[in-house]
Amino acid sequence: MKIRSTLAIGVAAATALVLTGCTGGTAGAGEDAGPVDTSGELSGTIQFQTWSLKNEKFTPYFEDLTAAFEKEHPEVTVDWIDQPGDGYQDKILSQANSGTLPDVLNLPPDIAFPLVKAGKLMDLDKANPALADKYNAGGWSAYSQFGDVEGTYGLPWYLGSDESWWNMEQLEPYGVSEEGLPTTTDTWLDLAKQVAADSNGEVKVVSSMPGLDTFVSAGIPIMDEDGTFVFNTPEAVEIVQKYADAYAAGAMPAEALTGSYGGNAEMYLQEKVAYATGGSGFAGDLRTKAPTLLENTVATPRPGIPPLFVQGINVSAESKNKAAALAFAEFVTNQENQIAFAELALGFAPGTAEGADEVISAVSKDLDPAQAKAMQVMFDALQEAEATPFQWTGGMTDYLNQQMALAIRGDASAEETLDKIVQYANDNRIDK
Q1: Which residues belong to the signal peptide in this entry (predicted)?
Q2: What's this model's pTM, rounded to 2 decimal places?
């Protein structure tokens, strides 16, 4: 199982246009949005929709989950449905436009956005102001930053992140110790140049071009209060130039700049690089494909602010049974049920403010020690992790990669490159 990636910009833009066309372009969670009282006796039927989770592994969990809620609320029936992975956003659009959106559903922030703009999702800040403190702060924020629409429109459900993987066998001959591994973007790039110089370019510590997450990790503001991309700052220019300098010093393989690039994890497995990024499950890949390499690998948090990948549970603003729907959404995402889900979805953390340690304790005895340690590293880092803005699309990533390759090779200046990328991103925003 993996965090679902952002869909193509064309689909997202079309979705936003069709839905906002029904509501004038801006909306909250309906004119009657306000507190929803779930303390009384609940009754009726609600529909709960997941995304590609009906299978041998997860079906028993959801059957038990719905049965437990129905036992607590005997007058409520939960109708669980699951949609296939492919075409999920198209299905959501169809449901929203036809008025058949399920009462409770699973949406990542980017797919939730057009529904938020169209007033199709419940504002959970208004429905229950006490909820925020129960969830991971970064996950909560990911459902609270929808441009000019105020409010929060999703409960963080399960979370993921990347971490750093270091080949100490390659690095230690050049004075690098586990205790001295870099914790910021700047010190990591400085280390890469130093190791490249000392090894005559044999050991490479930069294994991919800078992406938007690079600037998030460095603490550089990505968007301003108006939702405009603004990461073409002097600090970002300095980082891109440092990448270019590292490339010129032999600290980065040339294939990382080409269309045939297979990913930094693959290059790490081939020992072409001494550094890669990846989730905690990468330990399992190493154990299967390169067990000797795993013995010399150390996992640490990503330098700077860790990235955050978010899935959430959302409530339809048009539900005919708002009280039962909200109560069930809170039930699905409470600490006990999130812990149980994360124990099945190995490598993912619960979206609650607490509970990560309980997951580690429950699963570590059955895991390879390296994977258990990697999970602990990732779970600890999630307290500070931040998601990239939902407005950033796959098309923007493609354009960034094309332009960034020119800057890293020295064919364009870092400043000019960032200006072009930011201009392209602002010209192609899905929320305008």
Answers
A1: 1-29
A2: 0.88
